Amino acid sequence: MSDDDGIVARLDRRARQLWSRLPADAAAGRLLDGAPGGLPAALREAQALLMRQQGRLWRRTAATAWALGQADPSLVGGIGPARHLARLARARRWEDTGLRLIAASAMLAVAACVLFGLGWSYGAWVGLFLPCLMALWPIYAALDDARFSFARAVAVVALARIGEPETAQDVAQAVTDTRKGKQTLGSGLVRRAAAASLPSALRRLSAEHYGSVSTRLSEALAAALPVVEPSVQRAVLRALLLVGRGADAEAVGRLLGRAPNGEVRELARRTLTVLEERRKAERDVLLLVRAGEAPPAGEALLRPAGSLVGPLEDRLLSPAEAPIHDEETAAS
Question: What DSSP assignment string belongs to 205-237?
Answer without folding.
Answer: --GGGTTTS-HHHHHHHHHHGGGS-HHHHHHHH
